[in-house]
Every structure is written in C-alpha cells, then in structure tokens.
Amino acid sequence: MKHLLSTQELTRDEAIAILDTADRMAEVGQQSVKKLPALRGRTVVNLFFEDSTRTRISFETAAKRLSADVINFSAKGSSVSKGESLKDTAQTLMAMNADAVVIRHGTSGAPQRLATTGWIDAAVLNAGDGKHEHPTQALLDVMTLRQHRANLTGGETQGTDLEGMHVVIVGDILHSRVARSNMWLLTTLGARVTFVAPPTLLPVGTQHWPARIVFDLDEALAENPDAVMLLRVQRERMHAAFFPSEAEYARWWGLTPERLDALDRAGATTAIMHPGPMNRGLEISSEAADSPRSTVLRQVSNGVAVRMACLYLLLTGDDAQ
Ligand code: CP
Fold this sequence. Notes:
Heterododecamer (2C3:3R2) of six catalytic PyrB chains organized as two trimers (C3), and six regulatory PyrI chains organized as three dimers (R2). Its EC number is 2.1.3.2. 39% of the residues lie in helices and 14% in strands. With 321 residues, it is α/β, with parallel strands linked by helices. The radius of gyration is 19 Å and the shape is globular. The model has no long low-confidence stretch (mean pLDDT 94). It binds phosphoric acid mono(formamide)ester (CP). The site of phosphoric acid mono(formamide)ester (CP) has 9 residues, from helix 2.
C-alpha cells in the first residue's frame, strides 16, 4: 500500500493489519513517554483545505508520537486565498521534502489527484474529501467496534474482523463521507450495515450499495444493533431545505432521551457512536452523548492510534513489530 485514499479499495487483510498495528500503537499512548523513534527524520505535511479539529490534531499527534517532523498547513491564511492552485500548493510543500501528505479537501477526488498525477512523490493520506471518503475515520470506528465486542465477550481484538456485527448509521447520508467509508469497511470486515435517513438525505444509487435502507429509526433500534452511529447534520453543505425543522428532525431521526430509555429497557448492548463534531439536541441528545453507552471520546483516542498505524505502515512498509 503506497497511499490511503479510500476504504473501498482496502482488502480485509490490509484493514486488519492496520487495526492490529493501531492496537499496539494505542499502548504507546498509555506510557509515560508517549513516543517511538520509528519515523525520526521523516516529514509529514498536514494539508487542510477544510476545517477540522479531531482529524488535524490527531494526525499531528500521531506523527509527533512517531518522532516525525510535522508541517501544518491550513488554507485559511495561506496563499490559497490569493488563488494558488492545489498543484502549486502541493509542490511548494514537496520542495520541503515531505514523505507523507495528509490532505482534507472539499472536492471529492482531490487526494486521488495528488496521488496519481505525479505532482508529488509522497504517500498521500485522505483526511476527508468532499462527500467521497474519510478512511481513517472508518478505521477508528472499526477499532472502537472491535473493542466494544471484546469488552462484552472477553474475546480478542487482534486478528479479528466484525463478522456478525450489525451497525445502524443514521442521518445525513447524502453529504457524509463518514457513512460511505464506514459502509465499505464494515462490509469488507463482515458486518451488516443499515442506513436510516429521511428520503431527502439519501443520495441516488443507494440500491447498488451493500447496505439496507430503512426509514424508521425505532424499527432499526428495536433490532438491538451492536452500534448506532449518528451522523452530523452538515448544515454547511445544505443549500436547500432537507427537512421541515430542526425540532422535527430531532423527533424523527435523533437519538432522543426517549430512544435511549428504550435501549436501556430492552437490555440492549448497543454502543452509541458519533464521528464529531456533534450537534447536541439535533442528531444526538446530550443524554445519549454523555451516557455510559457513548464511545465518542474513545473514538477520538482511537483516532490517534489508527493514524499512527497508517503513517507507520505507509512510511516504513512494515506491519511486523
Ligand atoms: N470526525 C471528524 O472528521 O472531525 P473533524 O472534522 O473535527 O476532523
């Protein structure tokens, strides 16, 4: 693997190698000295054309924990505002001899373009491109799901896939790269995916996706899935009215306190996941976000370990430690 552009192209063995490596990287985060020398002398460029908190900070933390040098680039305040192109921006950063470029861009396919045009000679890691993919988010979500199952069963995480697990993904599928990356990775690893969304927030062509679509959240939750993943309503990408009101969205598609109570009454072991940032009171209530079922902060911690694993494997080509 030279680049990490999408989960659709990841094989089961590649995904499990990343997840197993991430488990070991997580142990580094528990030590008093949270550092490995693996990428000493290597340079990682974080190229962010869209806002980010979790992904940008965790890629930076991951690179630093592996002793790499890090250059952070944010389009805001850069010469992009003067009209500099993606090609010229990337080549300017390559002139600083980057070994890896982490890119988030509003245009679907921008990371593929960097990886395949020959503009740069570095490993490219997709940190989210338009509505297309967010592969490291899906990898950290799957790492969290493996831990969730291991905690319940007393089983192992190492070497395991998600065979037999059921994940319900709810909300703004139309604009969500998280939904797409999770669908591909979860199904590659043997999990079953159910999407729940208002019809207006589903893209065309979902009949070709390896996922079931339902419109009733209570019906999907009554199946006691292993996890329910709430997607952020992406107001910044909405240039039309996709639902009548926020109150109505929360009532029909939100994880309300009433739905949380129903899970508790049913004795379900369903984990509550959200990639962040959360719109509290819209797709997820504070009661659900802060409940013992919530894995939101565990997902953030796992994000550092997954990104360490991806950088390590891409830059050293070594999955044996
Ligand atoms: N989940 C996620 O991508 O969060 P950020 O936009 O804060 O990076």
